[in-house]
Amino acid sequence: MAGKYLKTRHKGVFYRESNARTCSYGPDRCYVVWYTDAQGKAHWHTVGWHSDGIRAAYANEVRKQLTDKSDKSQGPDNRESPTAASAEPRSCTVGTAIARYFQWGEAEAKHIAPEKNRYEKHLKALLDAVPIGSITLQMLWDVKTSLRRQMSPQTVRHCFGLLRRAVNHATEVALWKGENPFAIRRHGSFKLPRADNLATRYLTRREARLLLDALRPRSRQLHDMVLLSLKTGLRATEIFGIRGQDLDKPAGVIHIIAKGGEAQTVQASNDILAILYAYPRLPGEHVFQSENGGPILHGISETFDRVVDELGFNKGLTDPKRRVRFHTIRHTFASWLAQSGQVTLYELMGLMRHKRIEMTIRYAHLIPSSQRQKLTIIDNALLDPDHDS
């Protein structure tokens, strides 16, 4: 970091220019704020970098929140907790709403670990101390810009979806009174990036066999999760949530918590159930566990990506829709069923547990039909160009 603190037009908001980092217009700027606590002690608080979407106006809102907390504090032991139930309905921060939403999600046994990780990694530094009522259109644009530099359009939508749900929940429990600034209005000026994440890649039979054979000696658990997804179409988060009590061998089903928190039942073959029962788990224990025991909180093991790379499945591919990832296994499940000619589109919709037929239509082109045979009409016409009627 080079240079001294430089003033902005906002009181108590400064920045310093970096001699190592750059942004679109030149040296990157790190925004900091200066404020005093209840005892009159001065503090410097680093807000963040211009290249990460931070602006002076945003830093000013952070300073207002820090100053507000200092004014209300009588001492260090009386500072407001993010989970405090007594938050003012008009001064509730994004962090308070998120904390209460996660608290509710854990009580309802929701699989919120990915959302917790997403908030901590990408959103907390930007929004945690900001009052919901202070969120401006410019701040939404800044946050969107910052996220777009780091992630896909669909993940950006997931981030804003989390924020929207948290504020909606804060309204329900009377932590917040007012409009939801993260609500996307049809004719509003703030739009989320369009997500084009419909994967087109699925594994061939040979690729699936190679993947399973390569995973077995590396990780029995990862091998079994891939095989489970391949034979049932389960998503990774659904697999992570399976507990000992969710297995029903006599009925041939697995009880799961599906995407969105809905309880569902999935048919499973005897060999799959035998694999799951082979894990010595108590009724309340998760079948698949992290290295330290307990539920898997941070996604599929990196071993999966390493094995895929070693097999060369993604060599030379830059389009995310064509690269193999764990979700490709669920896509393979659907694609193989569609290609078999033994299931209709509506039957496939049920097997995939899609809520709308539009989600299943993406596999329609794989279902055998007479349309391909009709194309021979053109071939025959080209072979007999003199036969004109």
Features:
four-stranded antiparallel beta sheet, 389 residues, three-stranded antiparallel beta sheet, 7 strands, alpha+beta
Q: Explain this structure to me?
A:
There is one protein chain. The protein is an alpha+beta fold and 389 residues long. The chain is 42% helix and 11% strand. The protein has helices at 56-72, 94-107, 113-127, 137-148, 153-172, 205-215, 220-232, 236-240, 270-277, 302-311, 327-340, 345-352, 357-360, 371-374, 376-383; strands at 6-7, 13-23, 26-36, 42-49, 247-248, 253-257, 263-267. The strands form two sheets. The chain has a four-stranded antiparallel beta sheet. Strands 5-6-7 form a three-stranded antiparallel beta sheet, with helices on one face. Strand 3 and strand 4 form a beta hairpin. The longest helix has 20 residues, at 153-172. The model is unreliable at 74-87 (pLDDT under 50).
Largest sheet: spatial strand order:
1-2-3-4
Alpha-carbon Rg, integer: 26 Å
Q: How far do the termini sit from each other?
A: 81 Å
β-sheet strand percentage: 5-15%
